[in-house]
Design brief:
Serine Threonine Protein Phosphatase 5, Tetratricopeptide repeat, two-stranded antiparallel ribbon, mainly alpha, 2 strands, about 450 residues, single chain
Amino acid sequence: MKKALLGLCLLGALPAYASSGADSRLVQAVRSDDHAAIKRLLAAHPDVNAPLPDKSTVLSWAVDRQDVESVHLLLAAGAKPNIADVSGASPMTLACDLGNPEIVTSLLKSGGNANGSRADGIAALALCAGSSTPATLDMLLAKGAKVEATNPEGQTALMRAAFKGRTDNIKFLLAHGANANAVSVKGFTPLFFALRSNEPSAPLALLDAGANSKTTLPDGTSVVSAAVANGNVPFAVTAVSRGTELEQHDSQGRQLIHVAALSGNAELVKMVLSKGVDANTMSVPPSAPPAPVQVASAGGGQKLARADGTRPPPPAAQPRTPLIFAAEAGSAPAMKALVESGAKASIAAPDGTTVALAAAGSGNLDAVKYALELDPKLDYIGPNHRSIMHFAIANKNPDLAIPVLQYLADKGAKLDEKNDKGDTPGDFINRGGQQDIRLFYIQLLKDHNIVSTHDH
């Protein structure tokens, strides 16, 4: 049952309809898709627009059930498509939200308001853009719907079609004057909405129509960064090939080459490098410190909450070279692409993180092997005086961590280096690490005749 009818559904018992003025038998017939009963009851000319307890009408029930015949019967009996319930939803907006083309068309032909909207301001056209067909949108426009109408958030029908991944409706709206570069109140263009849809063809349709791939969100997030974050690397490659902003820093201080490296996709890295980017450029500190994390309730983690009801913010992103980002991503192919373009493994991050340390933390054995080919030193000490084994043991996936730990041990990595708190990797894993990794490391220490300095 849809939100618009939730109140009615919760009332449950049919006698409640009687006090509302609605014919309970007709409501029950519609709920049961009993067309014969609906016809028989309508022959007595009941008030089909009598309000139900939530102020909706029986037509809303028929629309909600997506029963075309029931809708037709009620409309023929005089049911009105624009009566809103207590939530502000009408049969017309509900029909557009659900998207059945025949039902939407029938309501429009019976006087449905093409410019109607829900209480939240989302118009019928936008609702249909996310759920119905181009033919339905065409009829809405013919009935006077405004293609550039916005809700209070500044979102257009094109943005909703993009968010829902409706490439057919995206193309239709663009052909009928929709602005491919409209900006919502929060700074999102249709392209950013499309990238969240997980439909590969949606952002491409916008790009082909002239959507600006160089635009950024207020926090500096680029279209390509958004594509990578949403797992649409092929689109990111296409956007870069057609031209995009290369030097803009996002809120984490990263330029496009850093985002590409962190994606681990060698093709994207090569595409960005082909634009003349410096393979050794360092990211910068974030433009703003991370915000404190709101604590939702006094449940789990309440001891970490501060007096103002928040938890301390996560650590700020640290500057990195593209090669270190690629190593953190555990991508030997991306690392190789960078090295072939002049990336230097000798450049460590300001916090002391090296390519080898970053690769060890990724849990990718190929990345670790390649990092040590570039720089075979195993005794680097990174942030908080952590060794390469500290980095490797922090990986929670035993299928990834154990082969890396074994390889590093075989190469001679020190197994009992202490961090700045005096903890060795063994101490760290004994305090609550993944069981298989913990047991493996205990055996590794025994094999090397090493006893943990802490008694656990």
